[in-house]
Amino acid sequence: MGGSPLRCLVVALAFLAAAGPAFGQAPDAFASQFRRFLDQHCVACHGPDVQKRRLRLDTLPLAFGDKESATTWVKVLDKLSRGEMPPKGEPRPPEKDARAVSAGLQRELHEASLTKQRREGRVVLRRLNRTEYETTLRDLLATPVELKDLLPEDNVAAGFDNVSAVLDVSPAHLLRYQDAAEKALRASIPNRPQPPFKYRRTGRQITEKMPLFKELLGKSARLDSDTLLLHSRTPGYIPCGTAPAPVGGRYRVRASVSAVGSGGKPLPMMCVCRDQYGREDTDVRAVRDAPADKPAVIEGEFELRPREVIVLNGWSLPEEREVQRAAQGRKPGSDPGPGLAVQWVEIEGPLGPWPPAGYQRLFGDVPLKPQSVARAEAEGRPVPPQPANRPDGWWIYDPLVVAPAKPREDAERLMRAFLPQAFRRPVSEELQRHYVKLVHAALDKGRSFPEAMLSGYKAALCSPHFLFLLERVDASRKDDRTALDDYAVASRLSYFLWSSRPDAALLRLADKGELRTPDVLRAQVEQMLNDPRGRRFTANFAGQWLDLRSINATSPDPQLYGEFDDFLFWSMPRETELFFEEILRADLSLTDFVHSDWTFLNQRLAQHYGIADVFGGELRKVKLPAGSHRGGVLTHASILKVTADGTRTSPVLRGKWVLDRLVGQPPSPPPPDVPAIEPDIRGATTIRQQLDKHRNTPACAACHRHIDPPGFALESFDVIGGWRDFYRASRPVRGGLVELANYPDRKVFRGPDVELGGTTPDGRAFKDVDEYKRLLLADKDQLARNLAQKLLVYATGADIQFADREVVEQLVGKCRERGYGFRSLVHEVVQSRVFLNK
Question: Is pLDDT at 235 greater than 70 in this prediction?
Fold first, then answer.
C-alpha cells in the first residue's frame, strides 16, 4: 500500500466498508421441511396474526448467508436446542422432528458461515485501540509516555474494546493520533544531561523538609535519634519520602523501615507517588510490609515525572486528628500506640543507559551535544569552552541537541531501520523511499535534523501501516487461502497477550517462516506469558471480561457504608487480578473462577471477609476456612462492587453479569416499554419483593426466570462485598442500630432480613451462594465453552460467528481432556483455525 499516509488510510477505510452479496440459500428439500415445522409449531406465536417478542418467522427469508436473517435463525436454533421454544405450556413437537430440524438448521448455518469466512475472512481491518496504541508506542520507543487520555474512547462489542467491527476512524482520531505521536516522540529526546542521582535522607533529615513538623512533635510524630516515628497517616503537605526526582525516568527507591508498638505484627505501608508539594491526588504505586520491631530494607522501582516523590505512609495507622485527639487525654511519656519507624529513604536514578533507550531507537548512534558546540561545529568555528560541572539550570540556555555528521545519509539510514519496527513486518522499497523523501524534503526546506526526522516518524505512526493490523494471508498456502502469514500471526499473538507489537524474537521467527509451527507457537506463548508484559493480559482481558475496569464507576454511600476506605478499595481489584494470574500461571482448572478453596488476601480484605490471622498489606495466597462463603470470583469484593451501585444491590445486574461473564448465555435486552425498578432507599422492602411484582409482567417473566436466580444467590453480599444477613436502612425501620460482625465499632440501622435461596429455570433449588455455585459447576463444559468464546473474541478482534462454533466445541473437548486447565485453554486457542486464519 504505497503513497501518502492519508491515501493509504482512505483505501483502508474503503476496505472496511466493503461487503459481499448474500449467499447460502437453503436447499429446497430442507426449506420445505423447515417451513412445515414452522407452520405447525411456531407461526401461531410468530406469524401474521401474533408476533411475540416482535418476531415473525413465516416471512423471514431462509437466506442463511444474509447477516440479518442468519442472526435471527441462530437465535431460533439456540432456543429450539435448549428446549425454550415452544415455551412451556404449549404443545411440543415430537423429539425426533425437533432434532432433525435443529440438525438441518445447524448444518445450513454452518455451511453459509464457513463459506463466507473462506471468501472474506472473519476479521475486518482492525485498528489499534487506544490502550494498544499507547503500549505499542511505549514498547517501540522504550519511553513510558502516557497517551491513552489523548485519544477518543473506543467502542465496545461482545464485551471487548478491540473488536474490529466497531473500531471506527473519525477526523477526531486522526488529529489526536498526530498529537499523541508527537508527544511520544518528543518525550524520547532528552534536552539535558542526566548525571547519576543518588540521594539518601535519614529520618531526621526528612523532618527538616517538613515545614509543620514541630506541630506534630509529641502528638502524631517524634524523633528517636535519626529515626522518624510516625503514629498517623501523614498528610500530603508533610511528606515522609524521597528527594524529588530531578528528571523524568525510572528510579529505584530503598528505605529502612520497621513497625513499632504493633504487637509483633507487620505494618502495611503504602508507597505513594506525589509531586514534591503533595498537591496531586494519591497514586498508590506499591504496598510493602514494615516488619515488626527490627528494621529491614524494602525497595522498588517506579516511573517518576520531574519533581515527583515517593512518600511512605502507614496505611493501617489512624488519621492524624484521631491521634491528636487521643493524645489530649494521655499522660506524658505514655505509649502513643503503633507507628512506622523510618531510619532512612534513598532514591537512585534515572536507571538505564545514556542516551536513553528511546533516543537510541530513534537516532541510533547520532550524538547529543550542547547546542553551542553543535552550532560551532556546523559553522566551522572553534568550540566554546564548556564548564566541567554545569550548574543546575544551565541546560535551559545551552540544551542538548541532535548533532548528525551527515544529515541526509543519517536520515535515510534511521528511517529505513525504523519502518519495519513500526509496521511490524518487512517494508517494500517503494514505501521506504516515500518516507525518506518526506524527511529529505523537510531538510531541504531548512528544518533542523530532529524536526525533519520527527515529521517522518510522526507520519509513519499515523499511517494505516501502524494504526491498523494489516493481516495478510500466506500466498504459499494453496490449501487454505485465509491462512495468515507469519508476520500477521506474530502481531495477532503479541496483541493477544501483550496488547502491543511483536518483539524481536517473534519477528525473527516470522522472518524464518517458523512461527506457525505448533511447537514453536507453544514455546512462544509460554515465554510471553512469563514475561512481565504478560501482566497486560490480566489488565486488558481480565479487566474487561470480569469488568474490573469499572471498579471506579461507583462510590459507596458513606452514610450507609462508612467502613469502606482507601485501603479496602485498593485491595479489591488486586485480589481478583492475582487470582486470575495464579490460575493462569499454574494451569489450574477454569472452574476455580466459579469456586475455589483459596484466594489472595491481605489483612484489610481478611477483616472485611471475617477471616482471622492474616496480617500485613501485601496480598498472598490464603486457604479459605470452611463456611467463609468465599472462593471464586463471584464472591470477590471487586466483582460484587462493580455489579452494584453505591447504595443498593440489584439481582438483575448481578444475574445478568453471571449469565454473560461466566455462563455465556446473556439474556435478551428488556423491552423498551417496561419501566425500571425504582429502589426503596428507605430500606423498608426487599428487592425480591419489588421483583416479584416486576417479573409477573408477561414481557418480563421469560428473561427473569434466568436472570433472577444468580442475582438472588448473591443477595447475601452488600454493595462492597461484605456478607450480610439483613439490608441496611437509611433511617430506623424495624431493628434499630446494630453492630456489624466484622466492624464492631460500626453501627447501622437494621432493615429487612435478606431472603435466601431460589430455583433455576430447570427446577433445581438452592438455598445460598454455596449451593448455587455447585449447580454452576455441574456443567463444566458450558463454563469452558463460554471462556473459549471470550478468549477467541479478544484474541482475534472479531465476534464469534456460526462457523466458529465448531472450533469452540473442539476447544471444549481438548479442555476437558486436560482437566479444564486455563493455561492449556489459552494454548489451544492460539493453535486453533480461528486464531491462525484471517
Answer: no
